[in-house]
Amino acid sequence: MQNSTLNLNELMSILKHKFADENLLVEALTHSSLVKGGKKSKETTRDYERLEFLGDRVLGLVISEELFSRYGQAEAGQLSRRYNAQVRKETLASIGTELELAKYIRMSPDLKLSGGDKNPSILEDCVEAIIAALYLDGGMNASYQFIKNNWWKRFDKLDAANKDPKSSIQEWAAKGGKKPPVYNVVAEEGPDHNRFFTVEIIVEGCSSHKATGASKRSAEQRAAEKLLKELKNG
User: Fold this and answer.
1) Residue 159: left (phi > 0), alpha (psi -120 to 50), or beta?
2) Which terminal Cβ of the chain has fewer Cβ within 10 Å, N or C?
3) Single pTM value for the model
4) According to the CATH classification, is domain 5-154 in 1.20.120.450?
5) Taking the chain, what is the end-to-end CA distance rounded to the nearest angstrom?
6) How confident is the model at residue 173 (pLDDT cuts 50, 70, 90)?
7) Annotated active-site positions, please?
């Protein structure tokens, strides 16, 4: 097995949960490159994709309930913006980095050598899978405590209730009677497991801007942010 029992114990200490079924944690850390195609190890479990699906839903419920309770006077639109800020890929990847998950993720040697364990998309997926593993092993309380420990401090950041750059640009264009922004993928680089996208934003009457990200969405957000800065600076 790629990760020793000692490393699993270290991670369980970080997660503040002792797994009764450690196989759940191993599964949450296993990338598909280790189990799909190629020669499989006798110790190989299935990958984290099913857990990721469940973890996304558990996270969404916990975040939604906390926002609803915490911001009793907030309108639905404000709650939605705060929600989107907490569940977006960038937030999940940031938490994965803070937890140093790169040390524990199990993947093929080739993917690891190419830096796959530090890929934001893989870190994000593992965080969601870990939430599901905690939920299945220790119930809602276990997953809730993990989410509380890693998300609550982010709720009151000044930009948490702000519109994301893409939404801001779309509203600005609509108010000015312009057509909706167009995002074109102008380049894709890297292997399938570690793709980078360069996206160009085009808005009527504005300069075009390009940006690169580990996903189309992140590249679009960065391109929109560049255009927003130009508009604000006149």
Assistant:
1) alpha
2) C
3) 0.72
4) no
5) 57
6) confident
7) 56, 128
